[in-house]
Automatic annotation (TrEMBL):
Catalytic activity: Hydrolysis of oligopeptides, with broad specificity. Gly or Ala commonly occur as P1 or P1' residues, but more distant residues are also important, as is shown by the fact that Z-Gly-Pro-Gly-|-Gly-Pro-Ala is cleaved, but not Z-(Gly)(5)
Organism: Pseudoalteromonas xiamenensis
Any GO CC annotation of this UniProt entry: cytosol
Protein name: oligopeptidase A
Oligopeptidase A N-terminal domain ranges (all copies): 79-193
Matching InterPro entries: M3A_DCP, MetalloPept_cat_dom_sf, Neurolysin/TOP_dom2, Neurolysin/TOP_N, OpdA_N, Pept_M3A_M3B, Pept_M3A_M3B_dom
Enzyme Commission number: 3.4.24.70
Taxonomic placement: Bacteria, Pseudomonadati, Pseudomonadota, Gammaproteobacteria, Alteromonadales
PROSITE patterns: PROKAR_LIPOPROTEIN
Domain of life, source organism: Bacteria
Family the entry assigns: Belongs to the peptidase M3 family.
């Protein structure tokens, strides 16, 4: 079983929204053999079929097959693990580490389908199975991590003379494997080992419950408007809201769904202040409504169990354990970075609020700026200070054209060519999903496929994410890449283009950056794809910078009606306002990141989530006009699983790298398309994945470590030497 499956890697956690661990159902299932598994007709277990080295059979997904598929795949994997652990030959890289890399293929395929049900096409029926299987998958993982014979073999290889003669990637894979097992209970004995496994099962159930509760509130809270309540809203948004209402059997009305892509533009443009407050509260109160889907008690339980588990390993707190193998290394280092930025961020918020309040007073609004006013009056300030109308900008941001722009950037930097696959050739799980083949422009070599699922719908979790259905490796023959981007844009009305905001366009490029990271991989072993959380956001954040390059603006940011490129004066206004509203953006993010670390460095016995959140933010001097980007009860990054837990700061850590790397491009002769810098970008920052220590990789690209002042300059904050 590959390390990334054993510990339910970042990719799986993201795809499954945190519902990613669990055990075998019965002794009978646990004793099933690999041969028995293969005799069962279940498409979820089968090797991918068809063209492009085989693709997932998404058109044949049947939820009734999921439980037996998980159980049989786990049984097969345990058989594989036992064979490795009980090998009578002396442990070496090939018969231990490499065999672990080969194991778990069937289960990995099942998780591909599981991830689609969890994130893209969820239903109450699936969520029931998810809740039931989560603790079983956790127990299954514990059977592997606590296999003493297996860990003994891994340890032997790691400490052997052979280790010194391995390739750099083999050494790193061996270390990652050893470290992953050691940090996840393999060194424990007796009651401690038993309790560790029990905690994993309990946490898996709670992670699934947290995620399910948030999704329930996203589905259950929808604001339906009449024509008289549409004042201020752009026509394109109104058309999309009408389509969303019709889809929900409210034809003739206009639906504001409980997702960021619907909430954000409504709060920006609606002149109906009471409705803005209602939509705002629906969104920010997810998981905090005092009903059966309330997450406060769930958070308390999760924190208590996490703390107990790391104490078994000898750590003082969960964050100390989590950050040990990250770039930050310690909670103190992570908090130290945020403490450098936080004062400048909240100071900027005060300036932004003063500008907004002045406009509200001038208009005679007789209000004090509240959180549901921030976007609305911020937009007025933008127009006043920069003569920049976000809705005007939106007319040039067509979803299809932005996709073409991303392909253009990928062609210039990575030499990739994207060609749409004819409908029906590759199975998809929803009619909105389209697929492109990716090739090397020069050689014509097939690289892989790129799936795109762009639109919001019922049963799809909120936000945007990227994942893979297959990653590039060469150790058992070269495999292609099956990558996927998923968004929640509000689909344009029939026959009309989907227009999105500048912020959404940046997110579109961001997630495509993850896809390029997958597609450009040049590694031998599957474990080399395991991510370092405070590094893996760097590549995607960096790609956002190409949205504002002249080449993209002139060719792809064209008016949806006239087809004319964005005027130079509008482009200049966008550039002039590049640091506008950075107080809001930085503060709402950092409040979540800081709270994440506080939750995971504080004794859980002292935490009542809502009280703790309020008290700590008050101590930090959190402006009353801004809230956490992800308030505690819907903070899925850290409570729906463990991919980002005690690690949400990683976006800021990665942003330091991003700002510093962007300056390398900006100062190059060829700017953001400079061939030499682009070549170093692909070679050291994208293709190596986690086959090399991230800090070393960045130094090879830049010639030095990243500097935090680049970030401060980027955001227009004061730079301190």
């Amino acid at each position: 079983m590959k390390l990334r499956m054993t510990f339910l890697s970042a990719a799986i956690v993201a795809a499954l929204a945190g519902c990613s661990q669990a055990p075998v159902e019965s002794q009978q299932t646990a004793n099933a053999t690999a041969e028995q598994v293969q005799t069962v007709e279940n498409v979820l277990l089968e090797p991918f079929k068809g063209p492009y080295q085989g693709v997932p059979q998404f058109d044949k997904m049947d939820l009734n097959l999921l439980k037996p598929a998980l159980e049989m795949a786990m049984a097969e994997n345990l058989t594989e693990i036992d064979k490795i652990a009980n090998n009578s030959e002396a442990p070496n890289f090939e018969n231990t580490i490499a065999e672990l890399e080969r194991a778990g293929k069937t289960l990995e395929r099942v998780f591909t389908y599981y991830g689609i049900w969890s994130s893209n096409v969820s239903s109450p029926e699936f969520r029931q199975i998810q809740g039931e299987m989560a603790p079983k998958l956790a127990a299954f993982n514990s059977k592997i991590t606590q296999n003493e014979k297996l860990f003994s073999r891994i340890k032997t290889v790691y400490e052997s003379d052979e280790f010194k003669s391995l390739t750099p990637e083999q050494q790193r894979v061996t270390w990652l494997t050893y470290n992953g097992y050691a940090r996840n209970g393999a060194t424990l004995q007796g009651d401690a080992k038993k309790r560790y496994a029990e905690i994993n099962q309990e946490l898996a159930t709670l992670h699934a419950k947290f995620s399910s509760n948030v999704l329930a509130d996203e589905e259950n809270y929808v604001v339906y408007l009449t024509k008289e309540q549409l004042a201020g809203l752009p026509e394109s948004f109104i058309e999309s809201a009408a389509a969303a209402a019709t889809e929900r059997e409210h034809a003739g009305m206009y639906a504001i769904t409980n997702s960021r892509s619907s909430m954000d533009p409504f709060l920006t443009y609606s002149t109906e202040r009471e409705l803005r407050e209602k939509v705002w509260r629906n969104y920010y109160d997810r998981g905090n409504n005092g009903d059966e889907f309330d997450n406060n008690a769930v958070i308390k339980q999760i924190l208590t169990l996490r703390n107990e588990r790391v104490k078994l390993l000898g750590y003082e707190n969960y964050a100390q354990w989590r950050l040990e193998d990250r770039m930050a290394k310690t909670p103190e280092n992570a908090m130290g970075l945020m403490n450098k930025v936080w004062p400048a961020a909240i100071a900027r918020v005060k300036e932004e609020v003063a500008d907004m309040q002045a406009i509200a007073d001038k208009e005679g609004a007789n209000i004090k700026i509240e959180p549901w006013d921030y976007r609305f009056y911020s937009e007025k300030v933008r127009k006043d200070k920069y003569d920049l109308d976000s809705n005007e900008v939106k007319q040039y941001l067509q979803l299809d054209k932005l996709r073409e722009a991303m392909f253009y950037v990928a062609g210039r930097l990575f030499n990739f060519e994207f060609t749409e696959v004819p409908a029906g050739k590759v199975p998809v799980f929803h009619e909105d999903v389209k697929v492109w083949e990716v090739k090397d422009k020069t050689t014509g070599k097939h690289i892989g496929l790129w799936y795109l699922d762009p639109f919001a719908r019922k049963g799809k979790r909120s936000g945007a994410w990227a994942t893979t259905y297959r990653s590039y490796t060469t150790f058992d023959g070269e495999t292609n890449v099956l990558s996927s981007n998923n968004s929640n844009f509000v689909k344009g009305a029939e026959g009309k283009p989907t227009l999105i905001s500048w912020s959404d366009a940046e997110t579109y490029f961001h997630e495509f950056g993850h896809a390029l990271h997958f597609l450009s991989a040049d590694v031998v072993y599957p474990t080399s794809h395991s991510g370092v959380r405070d590094y893996t956001e760097f590549q995607s954040q960096l790609l956002e910078r190409w949205l504002l390059t002249d080449e993209v603006i002139s060719q792809f940011l064209v008016h949806h009606e006239t087809g004319k490129p964005m005027p130079a004066e509008l482009v200049q206004k966008i550039k002039n306002s590049a640091t506008f509203n950075q107080g809001f953006g930085t503060t709402e993010y950092m409040a979540s990141a800081i709270m994440d670390l506080l939750y995971h460095t504080t004794d859980p016995a002292k935490i009542e989530p809502q009280k703790f959140e309020k008290e700590q933010l008050t101590k930090l001097g959190m402006p009353s006009e801004v809230v956490m980007r992800h308030r505690s009860t819907h903070f899925g990054h850290i409570f729906s699983g463990e991919g980002y837990s005690a690690g949400y700061y990683g976006y800021l850590w990665a942003e330091v790298l991003t700002s510093d790397a962007a300056e390398a491009f900006a100062s190059a002769p060829g700017g953001f398309y400079d061939k030499d810098v682009s070549a170093r970008l692909v070679k050291y920052l994208f293709s190596v994945r986690n086959a090399m220590d991230p800090a070393e990789a960045y130094r090879l690209f830049r010639g030095r470590d990243a500097e935090v002042n680049a970030l401060m300059r980027d955001r227009g904050f004061p730079v301190t030497e």
